[in-house]
């Protein structure tokens, strides 16, 4: 028996509105939760050691509040698209974890963060790679992120790569 009403093939506009609000809410929540992982709040950023060339050998950066880190990257020259061995020595700091974030200084090159493993007290190692850039010369910053009891410390190391 047909009562004269037919089912509409399209859901009501109200349901589409509810669905759109739910999707927006999911994206806002994801952004809120992921933001601190991508852009952590840093308690102290050390001065860049401009007198040292990371492509030639290990470089040291000293924090104003005490402590230092020495970063060494092999192979020498820090070639793009080649596996790199990273070695880090920490002095005068109590460190819970260490990561190295490679970022293009003048061009965004994507998220490229490497966690280093503690091999012995105050010595950390890891492997990573930097991507090839369309430019012939690219300036990079290897930012060492040290999680300490007093907060996140950052030690920047700048170097250039050439294709």
From TrEMBL:
Entry annotated with the keyword Membrane: yes
Keywords, in A-Z order: Membrane, Transmembrane, Transmembrane helix
Residues that span the membrane, as ranges: 14-32
Domain of life, source organism: Bacteria
Protein name: Uncharacterized protein
Organism: Thiorhodococcus mannitoliphagus
């Amino acid at each position: 028996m047909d009562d004269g009403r037919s089912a509409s093939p399209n859901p009501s506009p109200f349901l589409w509105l509810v669905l759109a609000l739910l999707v927006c809410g999911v994206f806002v929540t994801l952004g809120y939760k992921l933001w601190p992982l991508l852009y952590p709040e840093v308690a102290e950023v050390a001065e860049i050691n401009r007198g040292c060339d990371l492509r030639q050998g290990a470089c040291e950066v000293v924090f104003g509040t005490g402590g230092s880190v020495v970063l060494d990257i092999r192979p020498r020259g820090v070639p793009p698209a080649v596996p790199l061995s990273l070695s880090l020595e920490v002095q005068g700091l109590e460190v819970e974890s260490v990561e190295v974030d490679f970022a293009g200084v003048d061009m965004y090159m994507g998220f490229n963060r490497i966690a280093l493993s503690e091999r012995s007290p105050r010595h950390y190692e890891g492997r990573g790679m930097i991507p090839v850039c369309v430019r012939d010369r690219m300036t990079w910053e290897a930012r060492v992120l040290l999680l300490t009891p007093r907060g996140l410390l950052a030690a920047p190391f700048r170097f250039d790569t050439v294709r």
